[in-house]
Amino acid sequence: MSAVNITLQPRPLTDASVDHAIQAIVAGASTAETCNTDLASGPWDFDTRPGYGPGSSMGDVIPTGSPRQGELPREYREASEVELNQRIRAAKAILGDRVVVLGHFYQREEVVVHADYVGDSFQLANAALEHPHAEAIVFCGVHFMAETADLLSRPEQAVILPNLAAGCSMADMADIDQVEECWEQLAEVYGNMDTTDADGLVPVIPVTYMNSSAAIKGFVGRHGGIVCTSSNARTVLEWAFERGRRVLFFPDQHLGRNTAKAMGVPLDQMPMWNPRRPLGGSDAASLTDARVILWHGFCSVHRRFSVDQIEKARAEHPGVRVIVHPECPMEVVDAADEAGSTDYIRKAIEAATEPTTFAIGTEVNLVQRLAAQHPQHEIFCLDPVVCPCSTMYRIHPGYLAWVLEGLVTGEVRNRITVPQDVADPARLALERMLAAKPPAAPAAAWENAS
Ligand code: SF4
């Protein structure tokens, strides 16, 4: 395993493939550094291990009961990149409009080239809606994204996650049992959670980030709450403050803190809820005074970005424009020039009319792809160590070929289905988000021309 080294120079990226970059590092053909050379192996080599595996989620534990992927047949593990490409194309050609392949912005390039649409999780779920007659939606992302697509698609459509081990460590940090327990403890502090005060506000509105399980979305729906994305978090918090004295925000503390801080909520009114401690590690007085209670969750990928990296980028690239994702820690967001969702980052780069140097604080697959698409700009990842989201990285072309060829033979592999009793309230929470949104429609996923 190679050590993390942030002293390397940011490099101009010309090849969109992070996998190629890692292979070159491991072969000694590149002086760049990766957070773990095991990433050069096929994901089947680490699917069976108890943690999320190499990469930035390495230390995160997979919760008991999470779906586990069975062994990928040998023919897919041993096939070359060229052969897998041919097999995927051939299967898609046979399936035609019967299948839609969706690729998340953070997905590896070798998979994204086969996607019909590329976008963030919500854009992709909406893209699936445009294909009501497709029998199968193959979601090349992580588990909660496939669940959301299942919530929004027609019952007869099968949503498929090519590798069941592609979870999200952040989503897994808000476990439904822990959230139910938190709610009970808060009720002991605030009293009846359905009773409104003199201003017509209930004590707490639960708000969950899209990056959460369907069970959490269902919890939120059952308790008068709402879902948000990184694009509409402020609008959603405004909606919540019109209905509740305070907000319980999960799973990402950073998105919650960055958004509430930008709205003027003081930091001392944002206590953290650590599910392993009584009252979340807080006390009744702090919870009474709270405006936003932040769940103790984070994204291991975005937590890697630091103020030091920004200072280094500014020193080495005078005039650099630093844009980071709001899942980054507050100090990083404060030190950047701008913070915004993946779609914001993409549009900011597309809108730049003059050659510009961009330092970007988000997942390296998206950064490397944007760099390849916009050679007129210099675009580099703030983190010079090549360290992709290791859970997203589990969607390897071998798994994509395996599920598509299964569909060709009439076999639906790795279907993700949300139970009805969870799906109904989860949909309600999503519908509230759509109703709370300003009039503009959600940004569409890219139709993939590659
Ligand atoms: S980048 Fe972070 S939030 Fe997104 S899927 Fe990976 S671990 Fe989850």
TrEMBL record:
[4Fe-4S] cluster binds at C168, C299, C389. Residues 52-71 are annotated as: Disordered. It is found in: Cytoplasm. Its cofactor is [4Fe-4S] cluster. Signal peptide: none annotated. Keywords: 4Fe-4S, Cytoplasm, Iron, Iron-sulfur, Metal-binding, Pyridine nucleotide biosynthesis, Transferase. InterPro entries: NadA, NadA_sf, Quinolinate_synth_A_type3. It catalyses: iminosuccinate + dihydroxyacetone phosphate = quinolinate + phosphate + 2 H2O + H(+). It is an enzyme of class 2 (transferase). Binds 1 [4Fe-4S] cluster per subunit. Iminosuccinate binds at H104, S121, Y209, M210, N211, S230, H325, P326, E327, T342. Its main location: cytoplasm. The keyword Iron-sulfur applies. Pathway: Cofactor biosynthesis; NAD(+) biosynthesis; quinolinate from iminoaspartate: step 1/1. It comes from the Bacteria. Its EC number is 2.5.1.72. HAMAP family: NadA_type3 (MF_00569). Catalyzes the condensation of iminoaspartate with dihydroxyacetone phosphate to form quinolinate. PANTHER family: QUINOLINATE SYNTHASE, CHLOROPLASTIC, QUINOLINATE SYNTHETASE A. This is Quinolinate synthase.
